[in-house]
Task: structure prediction
Amino acid sequence: MRYLPHSDEERRQMLAACGLGSEADLYRQLPPDVRLERPLALGGGLSEYEILDYFRARAAENASGYASFLGAGVYYHYRPVLVDVVLSRGEFLTSYTPYQSEISQGTLTTIFEFQTLMCQLTGMEVANASMYDGSTAVPEAALMAMRLTRRERVVAARTLHPEYREVLRTYGRSQGVEIEEFGYDDELGSADLEDLAARVDDRTAAVILQQPNFFGVVEEVREAAEIAHRRGSLLVVIFSEAVSLGLLAPPIEADIVAGELQSFAIPPSYGGPFAGVIATKEKFVRQLPGRLVGQTTDAAGNRAFCLTLTTREQHIRREKATSNICTNQNLIALAATVFLTVYGRRGLRELAEQNLSKAHYLAGRLPQRFFGPFFNEFVARTAARSPEEINRRLLERRILGGLPLGRYYPELSDCMLLCATEMSRRQDMDTLAEVFLGR
Result:
């Protein structure tokens, strides 16, 4: 009864208060044929260390010891030990949302530091306290642009992460958003800016562009911004591989920057929990969804923090709320904060350079589908075997291969999206190339 501290006497008192004589009376309304009259077919209880041994063994059967070249929005990066040391502190791990600033200064301080780091990373002037993840940050950024421009049309790149586009369409159906997509250059793999220019009109609220895009290709943000701004639209730049911001110039030409922070010490963990963020220019802060922590001084003149903007239904009139997002991914955002603090500006750049170098080494051994500049992901064209068959053969070598693209891009059914990070070893990359080329 480690986690259920009620005594037998307390249970009897609760049953008596309900007018019942035993626990079996709780279920007397159920017909006998649906009651389980025998114990569950489970093994005996295990001690704590036996349970840990059990789960370590199951983990070894899963992905432990496998090299991974799978990216596509979720990346395998090193997690500094210090991250979990900080996250496991009780005041962070078990704290609730920081409504009462007088007893939440530590939590509010970490959020403020997070916002500051996000502004430095993206080149924006203000950032919110985090979003649920990158996929939900995209439609929230689109809706923000619609409020600012009072328009209801969004033009999104087909090189935007396919699952992000799906979430955007789901939001759009209930919000009355008209969503149109523009294509990509068949040779470079970057967004087709001529197609974009033909689709943006005076009803367009936002142009959404991912940097680097889903194919790993680096986009021309400045040119896209010029196209959007000529028609009075806002440019929303999305990132899914946050480490790229250690090397690429921040998208300062954008009006709104949104993205996924999983690369910053957040484990893949079957797809979550992750943390997203939206950053923007100060003049747009009133339409920023989520919450914002600000710095102030207390009655004694000391530095203090408080929730400055929380424009949601619980706090203001519903029709004036910017979003129904009601909290932030505080613990996960703290992991990203610790990660960036550990690496620093120079360390993040060195990490990004490692990713760039290893991805280009691997790409140099494989037939590439696109020829635009790329960061740590690229599209390789398969030859005699299908991407699925190549992945099955790689799995036999304890290697997780790339993402077959035919599911999202039928015209690329003979292609695979591969990723190399600082965790990729040369011998595994060589093995992947051998299997890929059928040697």
Observations:
- DSSP finds twelve helices and 14 strands in the chain.
- The chain has a mean pLDDT of 92.
